[in-house]
């Protein structure tokens, strides 16, 4: 059975992780892997999460299945976090999923089955894993312009022009905040203009929101998403808790559907449950129940928000520091956009050869398209990092 198989091509980010681990140079810097790191290079367990986990272990009475929908209390709490407390509960349905990737996959499969030849439009560039997830689910993938690598800005006019030209009822994948891999966000005014085009063209928005709270704040990062929820007739959301709750290995996410009315929302969520049943069946419960406890307990909720805000402000400080150091070492404003971007990532606009030179000569590891994880920047090594980048230009 296996003798005719070819060995799969390895994941480039995982391969980069292997090279980094094997590197014995003491000054090596990992800017590749997309997980939050503190000033010591560790991915810590948030204090509020640790307290909630201990509570969960002491109060859990059973390890039985929780059902296809997952933890209903988690679904309600996380939906309110994304859409605000006053969202339209008559038209919104939620289902727990195994991480944001799991939510992306089951929603993609739902949409692929709802329309023959369904097409999804994704930004250029987008998170690399979007492509295999959507193609495996059966969607046809096309691209709309988004990022200008030279200026580090969103190509908003080109984006809107492209969306005005695509067929009605096509799906448009949008990053809710902290665009991966570029870090270049839409402003609220741009979200509003985008929303008008989506309604005018009868396009279906599919929002991937994985970094709420990492950009400008919990409510600010969800403002565009919440605006769309108020004006579009239908929408789907894939939400991840990996980053803002730091529960990467627990795989906690949610799929959220907005229907034209309650009846259509019920039909859609019933079909989504069937998709999940045919795939992984029941979602994992531990992480979701812990997050539910945080969101439903006032003191833990406040403690988590304070920790999240500290993470956000640290990344902003690192962005500003790197931009200032690069300005000094390159004697130009070429990299000023780094300070204006938001979230964990920015794409520096370096060539593959320059990225390789940084790895070989300076032990600086980043993805081949020059996407860097801002949280991986060395707090006390920004000058050396900037000098190394300037040396390969």
Explain the overall architecture.
This protein is an alpha/beta fold and 393 residues long. The chain folds into two domains: 12-45 and 310-391, Aspartate Aminotransferase, domain 1; 65-296, Aspartate Aminotransferase, domain 2, CATH 3.40.640. Helix content is 47%, strand content 15%. It has 15 helices and 13 strands. Strands 2-10-9-8-7-3-4 form a seven-stranded mixed sheet, sandwiched between helices. The longest helix is centred in the C-terminal third of the chain and has 33 residues, at 298-330. The protein is globular. The relative contact order is 0.17.
Layout of helices and strands:
Layout: H1 12-22, E1 29-30, H2 47-59, H3 72-83, E2 92-98, H4 99-114, E3 119-124, H5 130-137, E4 140-145, E5 147-148, E6 153-154, H6 156-165, E7 171-175, H7 188-200, E8 204-209, H8 218-221, H9 223-231, E9 235-240, E10 252-258, H10 262-279, H11 286-296, H12 298-330, H13 337-340, E11 345-347, H14 352-362, E12 364-365, E13 371-373, H15 382-391
Parallel strand pairs: 1-12, 3-4, 3-7, 7-8, 8-9
Antiparallel strand pairs: 2-10, 5-6, 9-10, 11-13
Features:
393 residues; alpha/beta; Aspartate Aminotransferase, domain 2; 2 domains; two-stranded parallel ribbon; 47% helix
Strand content of the residues, in percent?
5-15%
Mean pLDDT across residues:
95
- Structural class computed from helices and strand pairing: alpha/beta
State the end-to-end distance: 50 Å
CATH topology of the largest domain: Aspartate Aminotransferase, domain 2
Strand order, largest beta sheet: 2-10-9-8-7-3-4
Rg, alpha carbons? 21 Å
User: Which blocks of ≥5 consecutive residues have pLDDT under 50?
Assistant: none
Order of helices and strands: HEHHEHEHEEEHEHEHHEEHHHHEHEEH
């Amino acid at each position: 059975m296996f003798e005719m198989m070819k060995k799969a091509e390895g994941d480039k980010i995982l391969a980069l992780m292997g090279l980094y681990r094997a590197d014995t140079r003491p000054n090596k810097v990992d800017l590749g892997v997309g997980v939050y790191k503190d000033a010591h290079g560790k991915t810590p367990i948030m204090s509020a999460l640790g307290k909630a986990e201990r509570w969960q272990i002491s109060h859990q009475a059973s390890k039985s299945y929780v059902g296809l929908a997952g933890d209903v209390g988690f679904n309600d709490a996380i939906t309110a976090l994304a859409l605000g407390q006053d969202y339209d509960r008559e038209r919104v349905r939620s289902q727990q999923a195994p991480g944001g990737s799991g939510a992306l996959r089951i929603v993609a499969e739902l949409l692929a089955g709802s329309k023959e030849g369904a097409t999804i439009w994704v930004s250029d560039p987008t998170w690399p894993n979007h492509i295999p997830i959507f193609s495996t689910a059966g969607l046809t993938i096309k691209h709309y312009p988004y990022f200008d690598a030279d200026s580090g800005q969103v190509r908003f006019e080109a984006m809107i022009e492209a969306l005005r030209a695509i067929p009605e009822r096509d799906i448009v994948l949008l990053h809710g905040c902290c665009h991966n891999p570029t870090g270049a966000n839409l402003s609220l005014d741009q979200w509003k203009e985008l929303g008008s085009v989506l309604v005018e063209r009868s396009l279906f928005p599919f929002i991937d929101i994985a970094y709420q709270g990492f950009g400008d704040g919990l409510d600010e990062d969800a403002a565009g998403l919440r605006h769309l929820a108020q004006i579009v007739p239908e929408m789907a959301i894939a939400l991840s808790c990996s980053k803002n709750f730091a529960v990467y290995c627990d795989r906690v996410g949610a799929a959220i559907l907005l229907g034209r009315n309650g009846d259509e929302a019920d039909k859609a969520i019933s079909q989504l449950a069937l998709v999940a049943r045919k795939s992984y069946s029941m979602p994992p419960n531990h992480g979701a129940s812990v997050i539910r406890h945080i969101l439903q307990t006032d003191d833990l909720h406040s403690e988590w928000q304070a920790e999240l805000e500290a993470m956000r402000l640290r990344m902003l400080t690192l962005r500003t520091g790197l931009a200032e150091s690069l300005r000094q070492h390159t004697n130009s404003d070429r990299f000023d956009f780094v300070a204006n971007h938001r979230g964990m990532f920015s794409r520096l606009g370096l060539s593959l050869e320059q990225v390789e030179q940084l790895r070989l000569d300076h032990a600086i590891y980043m993805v081949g398209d020059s996407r860097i994880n801002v949280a991986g920047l060395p707090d006390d090594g920004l000058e050396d990092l900037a000098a190394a980048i300037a040396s390969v230009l």
